[in-house]
Structures are given as C-alpha cells and as structure tokens.
Please model this.
Amino acid sequence: MGCSHKAWVLKGNVLGSIERYDEALLSYDQALRIKPDLEDVYYSKGVTLANLNKYEEAIISLDQALEIKPDEEALWNATNEVFELIKQRLNILEKKNIFNLLIQSYQKGIEILQHIGKPNQLLKFNYQLGRTLLENGNYTEAIKKFEVCEAISQELKDPSMLSMTLYHLARLYHLTGLLEQSRLYFKDAIRLFRRLEDDEKIATTTLALGNLEMQIGRISEARNHLKEAKNYFQMFEKTERLMEVEQLQQVLGTV
Amino acid sequence: MIVPKNRLGKYKAFLKKWNLVENPFRSTPPDDPKLLAKIFYGRDQELDLAILMLYEGRNIMVRGAWGIGKTSFILNLLYQLEQEVAGQSGEMLILYLSSIPGDKPTDFYRAILLAIADSLKEIDPEAKDIVDTFLGYSIQRSKISTEGKVNFLAVSFSYKDESLTNRLTPNANADPYPLLIRLLEKVEQTYERLVIAIDDFDKKDPILVKTILEGSLDLFRNGKHRAFIVTGRAFTHLQEATLKALGIFSKEIKLNPMTQDDLRHIAINYLNSSRTTPSDDCEPFTNDIMSLITNYAQGFPRQLLTICEQVLNVAANKEYEEINSGTFKEIWLEAKDNYTLVLTPQLRHLLYIAQQTGGITEDIKDQDLDKLKVLTFVALLPILKEAEDLGVLILHEDEGGIKYVPSKLFRTISPNPDI
Model:
C-alpha cells in the first residue's frame, strides 16, 4: 500500500530542512499526484525550486498555490517574501527573463486580489510590482503602480507604506523629468519618515531632495538639505553617503 | 386669483435707476471678441510682446493662476492680432481651441487635425472628407470672424458615440499625427501665417503634457510662420525649464495679479458695457466701496467680477439706492452667506484651515493635515485644485513658492466646520 499525501509532504519538509532539495521536490510531486489541490505543497515546492535556483518553475509553483487558496492571508505574505528573495538572488543574466515572469505573477496576483478584495495585500503586491518595474527600467508603468499604492495607502492611513511609496514616486518623477512633482513628493516622504522617526530614511530622502533642488536652482534649500543629510551620515559614520553629500556640496560651492 | 409679484419688473427698474440695462458682471469673459475688447483692461506690455512674437511664428506659453484672466488675455490678444494683421499684406488663420478632449496624445492630435480640417473644408476636398467622416468628436465653432485676409475661428469639441463606417478616415485607433502634419502643410500653402491657441493646455495630466510636447517637436517647431500659444496654470518654473530644453516655447508670459487701479478700470468697463450712457465712475458703487472690493479681489479679475455680480444683485433686490459704507455691510454679509452655505463639509474644513493659518502651503503642519484627515500635502492637491476652481482659495505664487489663500468672498468658518 502506498504512502498518504501527508507522509510525502512530511518527508519533503524533512528533506528540505536538511537541504536535500532534489529529493524533497520528488516527495512534494508525489504528494501532489495523490492530492493536486494542496496549496501549501505548491508553496513548499516553490521555495524548494527557488533554493535550487530554478526560479521560473518556482514562480509558477507559487502562482499555483495562490490560485488554489487566494483567501489565505499568510500565503500572500509568504509568497511575497519568496518573490523578494528570488529578486535578490538573481544575477544580471537571469534578471531580464525572471523579472518579466515576476511582473506577470504580480499582475496575476493583483487581478485575484482585486476580485477578492484584500486591500492590504493589494497594496503590497502593487508596491512590489512597482519596485520590480522600476528596477526593470519601466518608469511609466512603475509610476502607475505606485500611484495605485498611494491611493490605497492614503485610504488605509498606512504611513509606513505611504512613505516608501512617495519616496519611490519622487524618484520616478525625478527620473522622468517631472521635477516639481518630484520635489513635493520628496518633501511629503520626509514628513512621513519624521512621523515614523526613521532617521536613516529621513537622511537618504533629504539627500535626494537636496540633489533635486540643486538641479532646479533652489540653491539655498539645497544647501540646507545637504547639510542636514551630512550631519546624520557623519553621526552614524555612513562613509559612502557622506562622500556623496560632500561631492554635491563641492558642486554647490562653485554655484 | 394669483397676483404675480413682479420681482423682475422691480429688479429691472432698479437697474434702470442705476443707468444699467442688466447686471453686467459675469465671472467668465464674454465670448464675443468685440465686446471683450471693450471690457479688457491692462496687460499692455504682455500684449505688445505677444502680438509681435505670434506674428513672427514664435511659440508662447501663458501661465497664471485660476481667475487671473488667462482666457480673457488670450482671446483679446488673438482679436488684437486679427485687427492688426488685417491691415498688413498676407493671409492669416487664427484657431482658438477652448479645450482638448481625451487623455492620450492621439486625442490631442485628432483635435487639432479636426480644427484645421474644419477651417479648410470649404477649399480642400480632403479636409472636407475628414470633417464629414471624423469619428469620436464633434466640433463646434463658437465664433467666426474675418477681418481683411485674416480668419479667426474659435472652436470647442464634444464627444460623440459613433461606430466606424469608413476605414480610410481617421478613427479612434489610427495615429493622426502624419495626417495632421500633412494638413498643416496644406494650410500653410493657403495661409501665409497660422496661429493655434490652446487654452488650459495643462488641465491634462503632467505626464501626458510632457509626452505630447516631447512627441510633437515637428508640430511645434517646424513652419516658419506657424505659432502656438498655450495657457496653463500649473506650469512651474521647473517644468518650464524642461520644456525650454526642448526648445518649443520662445517665451513664457506670466500673468501676475492686477493692481487695484486696474481692477477698478475693469469694473467701470463692465458697468459701461451695460450703461445706456458711458461714464468713468463706479455708480452704484461709491469710490470707497469699489476700493474695498478691489482690495477683496486680491488682484484677481474673476474674484472682482464674482464679488461685483453678487453685491449688485443683493443691492438691487434690497432696493438700495447706492452701494455705500452704510449699506455695504449688510449686502456683503448676505453675499458671503450665499456663497458659504453651498460649500461641502470638506471645502469648509479646508477654508477653515486656510483662514486660521493665513493660507495653505506645502509646509502645512502635520496637525492641520490631521484635521483635514489626510497624511500628506500631495493628498490635498486635488481638493486644493477644486477649491481654486470654485474660487474658495486663491493661488498666490512668489519666489518662496505657492500659497493657497482664502477668498474674501466667504465668511469666517467656525471651528467646527461640519456644523
């Protein structure tokens, strides 16, 4: 008599925990052969495939998990985290293809979330999609996604997500030449980082704002903002950032 | 038997007592260029500059806050241009587009294409075919005037729901740009000079405006005697810097708030447009009250006209002989109440904060944002724009940035604006 799907899952989990990923994968496949609607097995299989650097298959497996059980909040969170891990691990050669696949997965996830109505997850998926598009150089599309995030996080009164969203939008507006919009968004991002008492992000955003102000001729504001960013980076010994500020200050000195 | 109250008769009798045929004040400018020319006052330097530049085929951007008089300026400018060029040799076509429908660059090109085709339809079969078969919009000519060899057409657009009948015509999916460029060349064979004016160009999303400009360099730059003049309020110094880098606009004309004396002249011009015999006084307003009103208007013609319209109506209904320091207080309170009562709770909140703080800027305090139930200044921008459109807040701009200050037309809002 054969094993039950539970036994295969258990075996897969044990093998995975001792990094015998190929064998773990075989066990998960056995479990899915017996019972094909196990979302947690598709999820575990996705993680295992990611550990084997088989990112395309991993993404497909994670998508399947979400399709089977879209109302499982924890599954959305976990999947989002794996997508993030995959992005971090990609090398330059893999980036293009896998990014496109990830973009499709985020879009698929967003469609499901719009249908079932989970605003928090919808916000996270749009945010990650925006970031992926930004990293992929699709600025106009990225702006659209972050604008959706802005609306949702304003609605949810979520200062944490809103602050990061505004920061990315400010960068994107800067990159696409919408400079005044960029300036206002940087200022509001700083406003929220202050509320959240996140000193490092305040300094990083203040530096970006100073850089923009320099570019558009708001010299005295630029001086003040660069000085403020410099104080922070000095205090926390962020050498690279400090050099960046000093370079800009040098340019400003000649203005 | 019901006896009519004869409100209208009383009202008209009162206006007659003031030597007026009707209440001449309107918040929007008249669309008859001849009437507008009689009412228009000031902006002489800007007109001198703009007429020469347009005649020479240079593009101009006119910007200024809501209610500062951009539409009056541009319409009067085009009328003056028509009058002056009529005395010169050579033919000229002036097109004024009051707004552009749609939210894609192709919508923009299609609208210009349709306006140009409409102006050529009597002399060019292809243009006529385009007008007859164009899908998606209909065009309305609101004004047509011809002076000498100059044609001045003002057009607006509206959507029409149609299905595709002729596959050769510019439909909603085709790219109209090449056809537009070709038709422009045809116009330039007929007319020596062409001026296209687009009002409220920046009503559209900034990304779209930028995309249109970047993708239309041939349209804006080519043609020696082809000039565009666009108006907008949100063009900032920064965006202009980007636009200047594209080399599209030779000149930016910023319309600043007007002096009290200029506003007084505008009020007198409006009164004269309805008087049986013109005069250079402010009757039925006394000089003191007109001085107060031009102060309340904060340099904005639209504020002035709205205040005068309201005050004159209330005074006529109350049958006051004169709008003087004795009667004005009561009139003014009633006029302000008429405006304030119709505000939504959200706008009342905004007005309350603006009145408390002396104006709303990008550096608004967090506690004021909390009162307005938003987390950021950028989240306020749509409602600030709405408040500006309704004349509740007035946009002031100087080197320090922009500030939305409360209009004087509304009464002071209580600390609990919901009630």
About this structure: The beta strands of chain B are 60-63, 92-97, 137-147, 150-159, 193-198, 226-232, 251-254, 393-398, 401-406. Chain B has a mean pLDDT of 84.
